[in-house]
Amino acid sequence: MSKSTDERGRLYLPKDVRERFGTEYRVVELPNYVALFPVAEDPLQAVQAAVGDALDDQSVEELQAAARQHGRAEIAAEREAIDARDDEQ
User: Organism's domain of life (predicted)?
Assistant: First the structure.
């Protein structure tokens, strides 16, 4: 999906995207692009609903560290995929 900003820098997302992911996003600036990540109304509740009691034996600090590591790995994989596509062109 390709979108552009208006004269005030606003980006409008289609209704189906807003209905699927919500209306609040975290903007992450990366070296070669900007990514939007949807933010749940209650992030803790969203995690609990997704994993149930699987995380009960881990501290908040351990969970945060694991989440950061996982996010960095996803970003690195995405960058490698983009670099590979660029190399093919």
Answer: Archaea
